[in-house]
Design brief:
The protein has about 325 residues and is mostly helical. Helix content is about 70%, strand content about 0%.
């Protein structure tokens, strides 16, 4: 009994030291895994290079949230820094520091050429442009997550953009679903931490929650809930609400097709090449609309399905196919 009490006291002491950083760790973990999830869908090569960028964005958001004054210049600098770091990471500057200047200049020239072609109404499939755009988008989502968690004490509002990006990636790209599952306990951990922060703000600096041991017990009670939520997410079978999906896409398919046309014009090289998880092979993805064309075909193959006969002469250098 004495040994168990000692272990419990040690666990409470460890949680007491870590509880103030629980939300920080959840923010950084969510930020880092976002580009890793998109990398599994293989939209464009090199998406995993953006993981340090989003991690920095989460840390910067936490710092901005804790600062007493955040001017418009600070936000402008943060957004410009996100664009610059996305370009540096996408251009391979971080992975090849000896060639940093040359790769940076090459990346700037490639972006200039892409912008020129788009401005003239053309289309350029350089993968650098969508990679930089994705990096800046994820930078903004991660920056907001860190700032909103600390300043607003609102975990759900903080993680909403990241959750939407993860869910959209899994739906359209068929990849990163493990990261989407991990999103559940990490979000719950951040929810517990922000709730503790809010209660401390309401009760004052000398309130009952100022006791670190009490806060550690609250976190210890919430941890099994997060584990249970993760287990339920893994065990429960996926639900394919085809009627609901059909009703939604009757209204959303036309605007979505316009979005697809714009994206394919700006970034023609973007296409998901992720591997569908096993539960999608069992019909959970049935009824997905044609609007999913942004991701390309799902599991295409070269199996022969028909013969076509025509009266026109065959083209040159093409083998003559005959009826079996």
């Amino acid at each position: 009994m004495h040994r168990n009490s000692g272990l419990i006291a040690m666990a409470e002491e460890a949680l007491a030291h870590a509880q103030g950083r629980l939300g920080d760790m959840a923010v950084v973990a969510l930020a880092v895994m976002l580009p890793l999830a998109l990398a599994e869908s293989r939209w464009v090569p090199g998406m995993e290079l953006l993981a340090p960028v989003t991690g920095i964005a989460g840390i910067l958001g936490l710092a901005l949230g804790r600062s007493r004054r955040t001017s418009a210049w600070a936000w402008l600098g943060a957004f410009l820094a996100g664009m610059a770091l996305s370009l540096l990471a996408a251009g391979g500057v971080f992975s090849h520091p000896a060639e940093a200047l040359g790769r940076l200049m090459q990346g700037v020239r490639r972006l200039q050429w892409w912008a020129t072609v788009v401005w003239l109404g053309g289309s350029n499939d350089d993968p650098l442009a969508p990679l930089v755009a994705a990096g800046w988008t994820m930078w903004t989502a991660s920056l907001w997550m860190g700032w909103a968690a600390v300043r607003l004490r609102a975990a759900m509002a903080a993680v909403l953009p990241v959750g939407v990006l993860l869910a959209a990636n899994t739906f359209f790209g068929l990849g990163g679903w493990r990261h989407l599952v991990a999103f559940v306990p990490l979000s719950l951990s951040l929810l517990v931490q922000t709730r503790l922060w809010r209660l401390r703000d309401e009760l004052g600096p000398h309130g009952p929650l100022d006791d670190s041991a009490l806060g550690a017990r609250v976190i210890a009670l919430a941890a099994p809930v997060a584990v249970l939520a993760l287990a339920v997410a893994l065990i429960l079978p996926p639900i394919a609400a085809e009627d609901l999906a059909d009703a939604f896409w009757e209204r959303a398919e036309a605007p979505w097709r316009r979005v697809v046309r714009v994206v394919k014009w700006l970034f023609p090289g973007v296409a998901a090449r992720g591997d569908a998880p096993s539960w999608l092979d069992e019909g959970a993805g049935a009824g997905l609309p044609a609007a999913r064309e942004l991701a390309g075909q799902v599991a295409p193959d070269e199996q022969l399905v028909m013969y076509v006969r025509t009266s026109d002469p065959p083209p040159l250098a093409v083998p003559d196919y005959r009826d079996p």
